[in-house]
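Instructor's aside before we start: the two examples that follow are unrelated to each other. I chose them only because their records fit on one page, so don't look for a connection. First example below.
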Amino acid sequence: MQKILIIINDAPYGTEKAYNALRMAMTLQKEHAEAQVNIFLLADAVFCALPGQNTPNGYYNIERMIKIVLRNGGQVKSCGGCSEARGIDKLPFIAGVHLSNMKEFTQWTVEADKVLSF
């Protein structure tokens, strides 16, 4: 089984980096169901993990996209240090998204066959 790590470094809205990363993750899961897709949220991307996102009709919604990735067997982790620095480490995350650390991030990186950074 191929393992693919996707690193998101940018806020959920304002640029389309998180959107494009999650589009890639969902397409990988659809077209290559045998691949394990892991997503690690760094820097302002930790805000992607917050529930209750309310976007206008017709606009992409990062929360819904993360839920699709999780439902299809992907794993999503949020950097603990980045979350703490932004004051959100004690807030609830989207169900299935877990607070993590550099040790786990490093392990995912070493185990990955491919690493994509957005």
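Example two begins here.
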Amino acid sequence: MEIVRFEEELSKSKTEAVIVPFYEDRIPSPAVEFLGIDRIPGPVSVTGFTGKKGQVFRTMDATGNQMQLWVGLGRESEYSPETFRRSYSSAYSCLRNSKIRECLIILPGTGNADEAFEAAYILKLTVYSFDEFRSEKTSVDLKKVYIATGERQEIIDRAVSVADATNFTRNLANLPPSRGTPSLFEDRAREIRGLKITVLGRDDFIRMGMGGMEGVSRAAKEPAKMIIIEHGSSDEKPVMIVGKGITFDSGGISIKPADNMDEMKFDKCGASTVLGLMKLASDLKLRKHIVGIMPLTENLPGGNAYKPGDILKHYNGKTSEVLSTDAEGRLILADALAYGVEKYNPVAVIDLATLTGACVIALGNNIAGLMGNDRDLKEKIKKASERSWEKVWEMPIDDDFRDQIKSEVADIKNTGGKEGGAETAGAFLEHFVNGRPWVHLDIAGTAWTQTKTAKADYLPKGATGFGVRLLYEFLGS
């Protein structure tokens, strides 16, 4: 699909379809220019179309050759970027299975850079489908899409790159557990140009004292790996991004209930985001030094599995008492964080992890938990979040939560109980960043569309790619 600027008069469009914006209380001037009307016609009002947020009215032009999708944006005073994303994605969804090959997108404002970016970005997210294993593929016949904007083509191209990286992330996360293995992540990483790849395996975990990686991976059938990816010049200290990569989480000896265990293929979403971000950095040739680390393993039961009551020694010498083998993500992140901090001396550390059900209970399925030790870094992530659909909410780590994970037989324990479960997980990770500016993002609720949660048309069922655009916006700040 090619997405390009439309530089002619709107009335001269001959595309098979046109998306036309409407407010409830006004028709935007570009739509007036295209349609030649300044109010919703009476016959259309009878259908119930009023310009209400998310409404889509399908009609044909006078010749019968051009389909028009009138999209409602609600009241102009309440308009926001998320209104644009959700409403336009509703219109884009109508293009699926429609055999439309060319479409013009008319923007509600002046076609500024933000609108042009969102139009292309959300289009690519909306038409995405994970159909690799289906005999009948989703039909999207669009070959060329025009966006009516006076902005540079570069804006659109950059949006497409960010969306493609997000969809790349979704593909990885959606893979079934027997396909989305640590070895597959290594293969995908090596396919990306211009990146320095280092891979550690089980023998390295034992030799280097990575007790979390060694312990969690003990009963894994697939070889565990820690994949380190470096982009950019090493002349400057990097930003380090770490993503939890449990390629399937049974809970280990502390086995999970059978219901919805199939969704535990999504426990690799943090690592998927890291690889998607590194692909984006390569594609856009970002002038940033970025180190991405993906600790990857299955968490399975077995006669040789690590057990509740075990004590693991991590890369930085800290010991952790295992109370639950289903609190495994923080154990592998501990080694990845400690190793990365020591080796790369980063200026900032960000980790993403589908870490706790407690965060889902606290914040639901559309907001990620944000914790950390550095006010400026947390504020930068919040600002980046405001420019994307990826919402975050700060949660505290204080001495009460730190006390909850103190162990009588080790330095810390890997769970502090149900109370404050998200915060105690953050307090655990804090032990492994050696005081570096650090933010932890608990994406357990946002990394995939949960069964009972309705999300926008641009996030159909499955992995969302949460974090790719958020970190892109952060790196550009």
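The mean pLDDT is 95.
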